[in-house]
UniProtKB/TrEMBL annotation:
<feature type="transmembrane region" description="Helical">
    <location>
        <begin position="95"/>
        <end position="113"/>
    </location>
</feature>
<feature type="transmembrane region" description="Helical">
    <location>
        <begin position="134"/>
        <end position="157"/>
    </location>
</feature>
<dbReference type="GO" id="GO:0007200">
    <property type="term" value="P:phospholipase C-activating G protein-coupled receptor signaling pathway"/>
</dbReference>
<comment type="similarity">
    <text>Belongs to the G-protein coupled receptor 1 family.</text>
</comment>
<keyword id="KW-0472">Membrane</keyword>
<dbReference type="GO" id="GO:0035025">
    <property type="term" value="P:positive regulation of Rho protein signal transduction"/>
</dbReference>
<dbReference type="GO" id="GO:0045453">
    <property type="term" value="P:bone resorption"/>
</dbReference>
<dbReference type="GO" id="GO:0004949">
    <property type="term" value="F:cannabinoid receptor activity"/>
</dbReference>
<feature type="transmembrane region" description="Helical">
    <location>
        <begin position="219"/>
        <end position="244"/>
    </location>
</feature>
<keyword id="KW-1003">Cell membrane</keyword>
<dbReference type="GO" id="GO:0005886">
    <property type="term" value="C:plasma membrane"/>
</dbReference>
<dbReference type="GO" id="GO:0070374">
    <property type="term" value="P:positive regulation of ERK1 and ERK2 cascade"/>
</dbReference>
<keyword id="KW-0325">Glycoprotein</keyword>
<dbReference type="InterPro" id="IPR017452">
    <property type="entry name" value="GPCR_Rhodpsn_7TM"/>
</dbReference>
<keyword id="KW-1133">Transmembrane helix</keyword>
<feature type="transmembrane region" description="Helical">
    <location>
        <begin position="177"/>
        <end position="198"/>
    </location>
</feature>
<feature type="transmembrane region" description="Helical">
    <location>
        <begin position="58"/>
        <end position="75"/>
    </location>
</feature>
Length: 315
């Protein structure tokens, strides 16, 4: 088949069925799980314990980004197949979607960096992990992703008829826009997350024979490993799909079947990257478990309470 006559109708129909099967349960589960996560970490934050505050603020920020993505899914599902009533409405939904996507990436990146510094240099960075400073970092993440969303306003160029999340202009796939997005939006955070996670796990495993709090350390290792796994599974395929589509739109790949397969792979990876808002619950689970292990480790035993009561009674 000639590249000029290459049809994507079958790909679009298959993608539509896939999105219906994935987005509806993702919307329901993501809405419930992230609201519960915000509520749970807010309760930890209200306890005003410095060792919980930094992580709790980061986790609330991550859950808010995930919730934003969840709320954009119904609109993405509909507007991907019908024309939006107003171009500005389409742009708004696209902005919300990609802001939540890259907001999650940067938040997980800072969580990994914060945890590594806290493990490697606990005394040096303790004053840097105040709730106020962590809150300012989260605000900076929001400003960063909002500013980074500016190119979205030119996604469709001067086209009069298009559907959201499709029909991107050639300028959108230009090297000047694509490579900064790919490098600073994913590859750099991926390198930071991978480095910090591997170093943190290595440090904690090295303390196995020299610590009395191995149960707490093990919970921390599971938290780090789950965050790394969720990050790679959620965001690596979709950015690989972006790169392949960049090759297609810039004329490096011309064969019709290859272009159809790449188009489907990109839609498939975008579809399953949305499940990230549900996969993050594994991170929440292990963080909450880590908090509980820490609480139990520092809670006095019944024997200690009995001795304390006895001493008070004798005095």
């Amino acid at each position: 088949m000639s590249p000029l006559n290459c049809s994507f109708t079958a790909v679009d129909e298959l993608t539509k069925a896939l999105q219906l099967a994935v987005h509806i349960p993702t919307f329901i589960l993501g809405l419930v799980l992230n609201l519960l996560a915000i509520r749970r970490f807010s309760s930890f934050l209200r306890k005003r314990r410095p060792d919980y505050a930094a992580t709790s603020i980061y986790m609330i920020n991550l859950a808010v980004f995930d919730l934003l993505l969840v709320l954009s899914l119904p609109f993405k599902l509909v507007l991907s197949h019908v024309q939006a009533p107003l171009p500005s409405f389409c742009t708004t939904i696209e902005c919300l979607y990609f802001i939540s996507l890259y907001g999650s990436i940067f938040t997980i990146c800072f969580i990994s960096l914060d945890r590594f510094l806290a493990i490697q240099y606990p005394l040096l960075v303790s004053h840097l992990r105040s709730p106020r400073k962590i809150f300012m970092i989260c605000c900076a993440i929001w400003v960063l992703v909002w500013v980074g969303s500016i190119p979205i306003y030119s996604f469709h160029g001067e086209m009069e008829e298009y559907t959201c999340f499709h029909n991107m202009s050639d300028g959108t796939w230009s090297p000047e826009i694509f490579f900064p997005l790919e490098v600073f939006g994913f590859l750099l955070p991926l390198g930071i997350v991978a480095f910090c996670s591997s170093k943190s796990i290595h440090i904690l495993l090295g303390r196995q024979d020299h610590t009395q709090d191995w149960v707490q350390q093990r919970a921390c290792i599971w938290t780090i490993a789950s965050s790394l796994a969720v990050f790679v599974v959620s965001f690596l395929p979709v950015h690989l799909g972006f790169f392949l589509q960049f090759l297609v739109r810039n004329g490096f790949i011309l064969e019709c079947r290859a272009k159809q397969n790449i188009s489907f792979f990109l839609q498939l990876s975008l579809c399953f990257s949305n499940i990230n808002c549900c996969l993050d619950v594994f991170c929440y689970y292990f963080v909450i478990k880590e908090f509980r292990v820490n609480i139990m480790a520092h809670r006095p035993s019944r024997a200690q309470l009995f001795l304390q009561d006895t001493t008070i009674t004798r005095d």
